[in-house]
């Protein structure tokens, strides 16, 4: 089975955002990944609810919204109303993660949990059956274009083992530094979804790049 691909709109040209979204609509992309950064949880600020709404107005692919923010519970409903189909919150930002996951599901969205490179897979043992997605950060979150962390392969393998052991249906998403050099190995390790930003949008033919990633 081919990998699913979620291009990160953060790497798009924001001066022609509608055109970039339409390109993704016409590509083989499975989702549009939307990175929300608050300058507190991560050392960068991206965009928020109004831009997410603007993306959604033109998008024909599901929005995969990744909240890299403190107090995500305060904004779940707003991002759902803005068009999020999947909402992922960070393990490290949620004091009551199970409650947050329940709140996302209550809103009718798929619920994901993202983990930073230093967070062990074992921390997900008591939540893995409740989530639809685990986003494994393969770079330190906050900036695009970073170098892929090699430990990610073994981390994905351990996560896949946990998912199978617990009978979870969670998909594994890998986010950060994804390209054709590591896509095949990530798939072999157990990844289901690849998030690619700079690699897609800085390529001469983003649609072809997406299609090639899917066949990795």
UniProtKB/TrEMBL annotation:
<feature type="binding site">
    <location>
        <begin position="142"/>
        <end position="145"/>
    </location>
    <ligand>
        <name>substrate</name>
    </ligand>
</feature>
<dbReference type="InterPro" id="IPR013785">
    <property type="entry name" value="Aldolase_TIM"/>
</dbReference>
<feature type="binding site">
    <location>
        <position position="33"/>
    </location>
    <ligand>
        <name>a divalent metal cation</name>
    </ligand>
</feature>
<feature type="binding site">
    <location>
        <position position="66"/>
    </location>
    <ligand>
        <name>a divalent metal cation</name>
    </ligand>
</feature>
<dbReference type="GO" id="GO:0004750">
    <property type="term" value="F:D-ribulose-phosphate 3-epimerase activity"/>
</dbReference>
<comment type="pathway">
    <text>Carbohydrate degradation.</text>
</comment>
<feature type="binding site">
    <location>
        <begin position="175"/>
        <end position="177"/>
    </location>
    <ligand>
        <name>substrate</name>
    </ligand>
</feature>
<feature type="binding site">
    <location>
        <position position="8"/>
    </location>
    <ligand>
        <name>substrate</name>
    </ligand>
</feature>
<feature type="active site" description="Proton donor">
    <location>
        <position position="175"/>
    </location>
</feature>
<keyword id="KW-0479">Metal-binding</keyword>
<dbReference type="InterPro" id="IPR026019">
    <property type="entry name" value="Ribul_P_3_epim"/>
</dbReference>
<comment type="function">
    <text>Catalyzes the reversible epimerization of D-ribulose 5-phosphate to D-xylulose 5-phosphate.</text>
</comment>
<dbReference type="Pfam" id="PF00834">
    <property type="entry name" value="Ribul_P_3_epim"/>
</dbReference>
<feature type="active site" description="Proton acceptor">
    <location>
        <position position="35"/>
    </location>
</feature>
<feature type="binding site">
    <location>
        <position position="35"/>
    </location>
    <ligand>
        <name>a divalent metal cation</name>
    </ligand>
</feature>
<feature type="binding site">
    <location>
        <position position="66"/>
    </location>
    <ligand>
        <name>substrate</name>
    </ligand>
</feature>
<comment type="similarity">
    <text>Belongs to the ribulose-phosphate 3-epimerase family.</text>
</comment>
<keyword id="KW-0119">Carbohydrate metabolism</keyword>
<feature type="binding site">
    <location>
        <begin position="197"/>
        <end position="198"/>
    </location>
    <ligand>
        <name>substrate</name>
    </ligand>
</feature>
<protein>
    <recommendedName>
        <fullName>Ribulose-phosphate 3-epimerase</fullName>
        <ecNumber>5.1.3.1</ecNumber>
    </recommendedName>
</protein>
<keyword id="KW-0413">Isomerase</keyword>
<feature type="binding site">
    <location>
        <position position="175"/>
    </location>
    <ligand>
        <name>a divalent metal cation</name>
    </ligand>
</feature>
<dbReference type="InterPro" id="IPR011060">
    <property type="entry name" value="RibuloseP-bd_barrel"/>
</dbReference>
<dbReference type="InterPro" id="IPR000056">
    <property type="entry name" value="Ribul_P_3_epim-like"/>
</dbReference>
